[in-house]
């Protein structure tokens, strides 16, 4: 970008190096400007202290506990009895025993002839003391033993307190905040000025992929001004492989071409074209063969015409010669209708000015086929006649309530007015102020619309001249709500815009700022300046002394009374029952609580560090990009 550079990606003149800014550099990356300005707030010490009294009552209870039933049984299943196998030995000593035996018997007739013999024997046998050892073997079964559910009552906390009225809990915090670095401006050294391209570019305020020179281009491998393209040169082209001015598409050269490709020339729409097509001479024309500004249609000559074959300004219709006509084939200005000759006629085939009706010749006639001045009716020839077929001179004014000369309407003030409530000359409409107005409530000259202020407005609510549209301020606007001149679009501010909501001139797109834009939302300038404070480091050391007494007591622990059912013994040599066995309530006196959390000289030490605050973005000035400037 510049003059006489032999290097690459330079911005300036006579540079033989590369990526330099300025003039006459021979090296690379010379003359690059950088800026970096920051505000630094040094580290801020932070010391905090405080505390309070810790006296927290601890209330509540431990809900009742229970021990589920427990079954003691033999192996092989829950219902199997418990085998009982044992051996019992009894040991003892017999006393000394004397055993006496007395025998008394008779022997009958032992010898024949002899008497019976009586025999008495007395025997005493002493038995000494003897040891006794008796062994008993037992082989029996004990039925399964089931202990019932054992329930423990709810355990209440009684007067348990953490701390006390005199227990202090001080807190000391020490540390630092910062340092805080706020970057006010930062510009990296790079070729060009204000470029934001990915690859190096020369020039000013270019963006996109890069490899760009010029001013305000978006894209890659682009030169020129305000192009939005790839591999393009020229002025405000949109697309790729373009050269020239305001082309939209691909593979185009020339001026204002639109198409898919392979086209040269001016004003062509399509592909594989050359030469001149859809050609208008001027700006903001829509159609074919128009010469001037802001014409819509074909073969118009002038400004602000809508239709075909009009010559003049602000005509709405076809083949009008003059200005502000609403209709066709009129010669003059401010006519409503067709085939009128003269200004301010309202009707068809009138010759003169201020006529209201058809086929009138003269001035201020109201009716049909009148010749002369101020006639009201039909077929009158003369001045101030009322009726039909009258010839001669009548009153100075016909109609009613008129003041002036040759007025044929009602309530007019002036000359040759044929309408109602007009003030001026040759007005055929209603409540107009001025000359040759055929519309209503207009102020000016030759207005055919409604509530216009100006000259030759066929539209309505316009301030200016020759506006075919509605609510325009300016001249030659066929569109609506424009401020400016020759705008065929709507809501424009400027000149010869065919799009909408443009600020500037000769824009064919919408919502553009500037000149000759063909796309949408082009040329919008936004500005946003902020101060960004990065995350602020925060380092804290917290010391909390801990010496907290915990005092109180727990309620008694009571296991309720329970009964062990009868146990049955069954075996080979033993059958017996044991029980039932009743276990009285078991009471455990609740313990007292006398604890200390921490102790003298004990404390909790906490170290906190890291980014704790931010980043903080402070908006200094923000102007959003949009159509126009400063609109809210």
TrEMBL record:
Which is a Pfam family this sequence falls into? Pentapeptide_2
Q: Where are the transmembrane segments?
A: none
Q: Give the GO terms filed under biological process for this record.
A: response to host immune response
What domain of life is recorded for the organism? Bacteria
The protein, known as:
PPE family protein
């Amino acid at each position: 970008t510049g003059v006489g550079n032999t290097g690459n990606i330079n911005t300036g003149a006579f540079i033989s190096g590369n990526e330099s800014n300025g003039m006459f550099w021979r090296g690379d990356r010379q003359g690059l400007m950088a800026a970096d300005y920051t505000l630094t707030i040094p580290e801020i010490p932070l010391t905090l202290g405080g505390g309070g009294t810790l006296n927290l009552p601890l209330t509540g209870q431990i809900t009742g506990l229970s021990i589920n039933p427990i079954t003691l049984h033999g192996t092989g299943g829950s219902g199997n009895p418990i085998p009982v196998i044992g051996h019992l030995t009894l040991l003892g000593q017999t006393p000394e025993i004397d055993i006496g035996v007395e025998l008394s018997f008779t022997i009958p007739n032992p010898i024949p002839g002899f008497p019976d013999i009586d025999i008495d024997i007395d025997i005493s046998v002493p038995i000494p003391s003897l040891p006794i050892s008796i062994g008993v073997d037992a082989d029996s079964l004990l039925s399964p033993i089931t202990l019932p559910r054992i329930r423990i009552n709810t355990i209440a906390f009684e007067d348990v307190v953490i701390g006390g009225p005199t227990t202090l809990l001080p807190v000391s915090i020490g540390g630092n905040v910062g340092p805080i670095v706020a970057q006010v401006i930062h510009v990296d050294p790079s070729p060009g000025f204000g470029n934001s391209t990915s690859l190096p570019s020369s020039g000013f305020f270019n963006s996109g992929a890069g490899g760009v020179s010029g001013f305000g281009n978006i894209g890659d491998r682009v030169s020129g001004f305000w192009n939005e393209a790839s591999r393009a040169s020229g002025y405000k082209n949109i697309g790729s492989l373009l050269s020239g001015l305001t082309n939209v598409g691909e593979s185009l050269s020339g001026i204002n071409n639109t198409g898919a490709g392979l086209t040269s020339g001016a004003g062509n729409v399509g592909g594989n074209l050359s030469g001149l097509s859809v050609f208008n001479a001027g700006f903001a024309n829509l159609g074919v063969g128009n010469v001037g500004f802001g014409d819509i249609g074909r073969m118009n000559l002038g400004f602000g015409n809508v239709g075909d074959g009009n010559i003049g300004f602000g005509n709405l219709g076809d083949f009008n010669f003059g200005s502000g006509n609403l209709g066709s084939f009129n010669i003059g200005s401010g006519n409503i209708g067709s085939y009128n000759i003269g200004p301010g006629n309202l009707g068809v085939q009138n010759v003169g000015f201020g006529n209201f009706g058809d086929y009138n010749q003269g001035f201020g006639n109201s009716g049909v086929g009148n010749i002369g001045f101020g006639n009201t009716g039909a077929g009158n020839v003369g001045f101030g006649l009322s009726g039909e077929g009258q010839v001669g001179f009548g009153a100075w004014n016909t109609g009613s309530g008129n003041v002036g000369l040759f007025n044929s309407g009602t309530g007019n003030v002036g000359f040759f007015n044929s309408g109602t409530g007009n003030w001026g000359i040759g007005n055929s409409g209603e409540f107009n102020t001025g000359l040759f107005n055929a519309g209503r409530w207009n102020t000016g000259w030759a207005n055919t619309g409604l509530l216009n202020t100006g000259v030759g407005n066929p539209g309505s609510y316009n301030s200016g001249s020759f506006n075919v549209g509605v609510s325009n301020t300016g001249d030659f606007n066929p569109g609506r709500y424009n401020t400016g001149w020759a705008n065929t679009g709507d809501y424009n501010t400027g000149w010869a815009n065919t799009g909408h909501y443009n600020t500037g001139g000769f824009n064919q797109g919408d919502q553009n700022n500037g000149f000759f834009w063909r796309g949408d939302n082009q040329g919008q300038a936004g500005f946003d300046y902020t101060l960004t404070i990065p995350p602020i480091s925060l380092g804290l050391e917290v010391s909390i002394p801990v010496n907290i007494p915990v005092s109180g007591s727990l309620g008694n622990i009571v296991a309720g009374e329970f009964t062990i059912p009868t146990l049955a013994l069954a075996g080979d040599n033993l059958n017996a029952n044991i029980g039932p066995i009743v276990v009285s309530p078991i009471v455990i006196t609740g313990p007292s609580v006398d604890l200390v959390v921490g102790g003298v000289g004990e404390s909790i030490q906490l170290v906190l560090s890291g980014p704790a605050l931010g980043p903080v973005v402070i908006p200094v000035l923000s102007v959003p990009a949009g159509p126009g400037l400063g609109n809210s």
